[in-house]
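Extended Data, panel c. Modelled sequence:
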Amino acid sequence: MKNICEASGTGGVDGASVRGLMKALACACVVAAGGATPLVGAVTYSGATYWNTPSGPGALAATCSVTLPDEQPLTVPRTLVVGNDVPNGIEIFSWGYGEWSSDVVLSCVGSGIAGPSTAIAGFNPQITFQMLNASGGPGVALNNPGLRLNIWIRPDISSTPCNSSGCSVTDNNYTLYGQLSGSTGFINAGQDKLLNGYANSPSYVYQMINAPVVPGIGRFYPTITGRYSIRVSIVKVGNVNYGPLSVSGLLPGFSVNGTWVRSLFQGSGITIAPPACRLKTTDYTIPMGRWAADAIKYVGTPVYGSQVPVNLPLECSGKVNHVRFRFEDTGTSLSGNKNISLYDTAGGNKIDGLEIELFYNGTKVNVDNTTVIDTGSHGATKASPASLPLYDSVSTAGFYARYVQNTAVTRTGANFTGPVTGKVNMYVTYD
C-alpha cells in the first residue's frame, strides 16, 4: 500500500519571521467498514398431509407448514481486519442466535383422523438441513483457506416423548436429530450443537413431525410446533488471504418436499482486509526557526542548527510490522547532499549555502526518492476485527530536521536574508 504525501516547509535567515508548513496528503487504500442488520426474511411452505392408501391419498391427516430463514447475512457489507498474527482457532466474527437469521420452524395441526400406518401423501412435514464439511477439517469451506464457517443450532423443544438412544422416530410426535461425525443423535431443548461434521462428508439435521400410534385405534398427527435457532462464526484456521469472503462449493441448505433451498448462506458482502496505517493529519506545519546567515563567519563550515521534531502521527487498523517512508525533494535545483533544498518565498529562486537535513533515530535520511526508512511496527491488534472506527489505534513516526549551512547564504550570487521554503513528497508504505 502507498500513501503519496506532499510536504513543504519554510525556514528563515537573519531578521526574517519564520514559519513552516508540511502538507501531507495520505492516499492510502482505505477499506470502508460497514454494518447493518440483515433484512428480515423468511420463506414459508405449507400444505395438506393425507393418509396414503393402496388406492391413493385418503383422509386428511394434518395441515402443516415449514418456515425457513432467508436473511442472507453474508450479503451485508462488512469489513473485518485480520492480521496473520491472530492465533489460529480465534473467532474473528460471530452472529448469535437471533442475529444470524430467524428460526427454522416446523408446525402441524392434526386433523384428528386416524391412519393405519406411517404412509402419507401430499405435504411431508420434515426439514433436512445439510452442510458439506471442509476437506481440511471441521466447518464449512470458504473461498479463503485461512478461514472456516462454523454453524451451531439450538432447539426450543426436545424430541417428544422419546429423546434418547433406542427411540424410534416414528413413535415420536416431534423429532430433531443430527447425523454428525458419522453418528446420529437426538438434539434436545437448550443444547448448543456444533455441526462440526467430518472432512469431505455432509452433516445433516433432521426435523420432523410424525404420527405416533395410539394402541387399538391407529396413528394420529399431533398439533405441535418445533423450532431451532442458528448461530454462525468465522474462525481463523491458517494464513488468510484478503478480499471478498464467500462460501466455497455447495452452499448449506434446507430440503423441503424434495426442494433444496440454499439461499441463506449465499453472498460475498464481507471483505477481509489486512491491518493498515495511514497519516492521521493531512497538513503539517514545521517551524524551523531563525537562522543567522553569517554564522559561518564565527564557527566555520558546516554549521548545524538545532534539531526540530518532525512527528508524523499515524492511525492504524490493527498492527502492521513495518511502516516505511521515502522522501522526494520537489525543488527545481536538487541538493547534491541529498538534503531539502530551499527557495525564497517571493519568487521561488534557489537559495544557495543553506539546506535542511532530515534524520531518523540519529541517522541521516537521504532525500533522494530512493532511500527507504523502516520505522518499525505501528498500531495494535484489533480486539474485534469488526470494531469501528476502522482506524482505532494511534502511533507516531518520529523524525527530526535541522538547518545545515555549508557556504554563504546567497540568492543568484548575492547575499540573502528573508523567508525561505522547501518542499518534499513523502511516500508511505506498510506491510
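The chain has two domains: 2-26+282-430, 42-273. This feature is highlighted in the accompanying rendering.
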